[in-house]
Amino acid sequence: MKNRLESETERVLLENYEKYYRLAYSYVRSEQDALDIVQESAYKAIRDCGKVREERYIGTWIYRIVVNTAMDMLRRQGKEFPAEQERQEDWVQPSYERLELEEILNRLDGRERTIVILRYFQDMKLEEIGEVLGENVNTVKTKLYRALKKMRLELEGGRR
After folding, report:
1. How far apart are CA 25 and CA 35, in angstroms?
2. Which single residue of 61, 117, 139, 158 could bond 135 by disulfide (Cβ 3.0 to 4.6 Å)?
């Protein structure tokens, strides 16, 4: 029989599956690898849900699992971050702005990249990002502003 935390974990996983997939994909740029990450993350979340102290933190806890699982996969594959693995539709109608943004994101360090992705692609609040990464809000803000400044300099440098 399922306990309350396990049922809530399954509910959150099902409701946010696409968000977790997009987050995983933003790291590995491979549909199959992203699916593997989400599947492994779901397994870990259900297996370890009894470790969550408060039910309201299950969502951010799962985000942390997805980020860590994606980073682990990249390390196992010997990659820091993927370079240029385009999807098939990119060849049909390329979006140069998106490609440029992906290249710039790939140049950020792991934490900065994660913060930018969670904030702007997953629409998470800074407090939620802090919970996912285990950092306080001021640290998250500092890293976000540093990352945005780096990105702006990269964009300005590329347009000269």
Report:
1. 8
2. 139
Helices (H), ranges, the chain: 4-15, 17-28, 31-48, 58-76, 88-92, 96-107, 110-116, 126-133, 137-158
CB contact at 8 A, 126 and 119: yes
d(CA 28, CA 51): 28
CA atoms within 13 A on the CB side of 131: 15
For domain 1-80, give the CATH number. 1.10.1740.10
pLDDT of residue 79: 59
Q: How confident is the model at residue 97 (pLDDT cuts 50, 70, 90)?
A: low
pLDDT band at 122 (very low <50, low <70, confident <90, very high): confident
153 vs 88, which has greater pLDDT?
153
- Which region holds residue 139: left if phi is over 0, alpha if psi is between -120 and 50, else beta? alpha
